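lol ok so funny story. i was supposed to be doing the assay writeup but got distracted and ended up predicting the structure for this chain instead. priorities right. anyway since i did it might as well share w the group, maybe its usefull for someone
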Amino acid sequence: MQPRFPSIGGGFRILDPLGSFQMHAPATNFLTIAASDRHADTRTAALAVAATLRESLPAPPQALLVIASFHHAAVVPEAVRTIRESLDAPATVGFTARTLMEGSEEFDRGPALAAMALAGPGIRARAFRFDHRDGPPEAWSRELVRSRLRPMSPPRGVMVFGDPFSTGSKALPMRLADAVLPGVPVCGGLLSGASQAGANVLVADDQVSNSGAVGLVLEGDIEVESVISHGTRGVGPNLVVTEADASGISELAGRPAASVLDDLLATLPAQDRTTLGRTPLIGIAIDATKSQRGRGDFLVRPIAAIDRRSGTLLTTGRVPRGSTIQFHVRDAAIAADDLDMSLDLAILDDRPPAGILLAGSAGRGASLFGASGHDSGRIHERLGEPPLIGFEAAAEIASFGGQPRIAGLGLSAMILRGRDMRRNPSDADR
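and the output, tada:
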């Protein structure tokens, strides 16, 4: 039997509400607090995180998000329960990940536990969960999804975190988007770190599973903005997939796909040739009818292997015949510039973010930038050092081409802001 952690006594701190909100989001009704702990003992880490959140909040929060490294996987449910119960049981989601982020720090080695609490009198939040009994996302009906999301009013945003072995298809964000109004941000990612099915841990309130997906529905006096950043650039021409099956692409523009890649490699500058040869990527055009494409117009996928005998590029997901693709390479400068451009737009809002959830692809981080913490540090600094937690995702979920999609080798950030108290109160429910 897993050990039950002791509860934390004491009440919430009585803070001046205006002062506490001004620390994070002036002129809004919304407060977030983030905390993390590196202790190897899960009980100790959970108690420390719970105490920090409880002592920093003027009242119980409406939502709680907990992320744990795999060092804590065996007792993640108890860690989440400890933190949740100390905060009077808000809507709660927790899960495991290979790498965690809190504030400007990235914890890519050793144990880590991080959590963020969302509080505000006009905010409503509910946790949802899908497991193996629901089947893959392709089988989810709109009625099933709505019964899990239980929207009481138009959602302001949906956070979703999926096990890649059971929900790692493009249908995951699409089914959620179909169940809410058009334009509602659906953000999050697929969990990283597990090498086999059943190793991830997902928690929704007091329910625990090792497959499926969990998430939070946010409603009321909260505003959600989705920020994305791309980490690759295209090389070579656009190519039409003329033959493909479930395992990969066998022909591009009527030629063996592997031969097309070989010919491109021979023409590239040395650095690009090395990068593409070591980590071959393809970008699948979101809109095949566009004549000009740039950043954000491709969903990037890795080439898992090359079958030289058949000339097939083996892919991690089906690429339909007739798709337009372009080969891509990872590029740290492009990734940094693209992130800065996205942050430039986010800064135009005169309300500083109250909190940020970050899902960064496993293709970023130290392997791309040479040091850990680039993305979390940059976002934290440029947006005024708001509470931030995040994780390394197997693939990020964000809006591409006007629809939420599973992408790769990029970054998805969900920026949370409280409703501006200077605006019409009815704006929150429009």
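Residues 157 and 184 are 6 Å apart (CA to CA). The chain has two domains: 17-229+337-429, 233-329.
back to the writeup now i swear
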